[in-house]
Automatic annotation (TrEMBL):
Gene3D superfamilies: 3.60.21.10. This is Metallophosphoesterase. InterPro entries: Calcineurin-like_PHP (IPR004843), Metallo-depent_PP-like (IPR029052), UPF0046_metallophosphoest (IPR051693). Residues 1-226 form the Calcineurin-like phosphoesterase domain. Transmembrane segments: none annotated.
Length: 255
């Protein structure tokens, strides 16, 4: 059985349309929307609303880890819009989700990324789309577990969870053949982004599950340019399936 896996789609709907070609099943590990684009500052919801020059400044502040200044700057821009900020964000996110889910292959097994807004997915799912978070599914005779979202960070993205809540989802999944998550296990080489030059947050709970249950594979995304794309921990092959927005190419898993 051939399974195509993507993560970190970040608005790339045109490539998503063909990402399931030739596959028996399709898995998406989240981060569908594009709020800001660190490679092309003219792209994303923030730039659409406020222009590239303001996006340049906002991204520069965040890259320099001047998060309080970035939030103050952002609040000033949102205050200049008509009405509250959230309706503007929700409309923009809704437009992206409408396009992305229309392009999403089926059958598909989906979980959330840290920038996703889970409550908005239901309006856009199509027949054959199955969302799993802290749950399992049988695919090709193997048990796949899914853990969505991320952990708390200074970036304050929409679907970040406390460590205990995240660990509870990992525990609920239990022993599986393939563990699928948005964020990696907490291993430094898997967490370091060589372009952003920073460590992303990884999950100690996933790493503990690897040591305890030794799944055949652990699949994840989140780190766009990782120092290590794959690593073996005991019998478990840990694989970053790639930054789909940049590559437009799914990871192929044959089971």
């Amino acid at each position: 059985m051939r399974i195509h896996v993507v993560s970190d789609v970040h608005g790339r709907a045109e490539a998503l349309r063909s990402a399931g070609d030739g596959a028996d099943a399709f898995i998406c590990l989240g981060d569908l929307i594009l709020f800001v684009d660190y490679s092309d500052h003219a792209q994303g919801i923030f730039a659409d609303l406020f222009g590239q020059e303001n996006a340049d400044r906002f991204i520069a502040l965040r890259t320099q880890k001047r998060f309080d200044e970035a939030r103050d700057f952002s609040r000033t821009l949102w205050a200049g819009l008509d009405g509250e900020a959230w309706p503007h964000i929700e409309r923009a996110v809704g437009r992206q989700y409408a396009e992305l889910f229309a392009a999403m292959p089926a059958p598909a097994y989906l979980t959330y990324g840290n920038v996703d807004i889970p409550r908005m997915w239901g309006d856009h799912l199509r027949e054959g789309h199955r969302v799993l978070d802290g749950e399992t599914a049988e695919i090709g005779g193997l048990t796949f577990g899914f853990v969505g979202g991320g952990l708390r960070t200074e970036y304050r993205t929409p679907y970040e969870l406390d460590d205990d809540a995240y660990a509870a989802k990992v525990e609920a999944v239990g022993a599986v053949d393939v563990l699928c998550s948005h964020i990696p296990p907490a291993v430094p080489d898997l967490l370091y982004d060589t372009v952003a030059r920073r460590f992303e947050r990884g999950s100690e709970a996933i790493l503990d599950a690897i040591h305890r249950t030794q799944p055949k594979y652990v699949l994840f995304g989140h780190v766009h340019q990782p120092l290590a794309r794959r690593m073996r921990i005991g019998r478990t092959e840990c694989v970053n399936v790639g930054h789909f927005r940049a590559s437009g190419v799914p990871y192929v898993l044959s089971v």
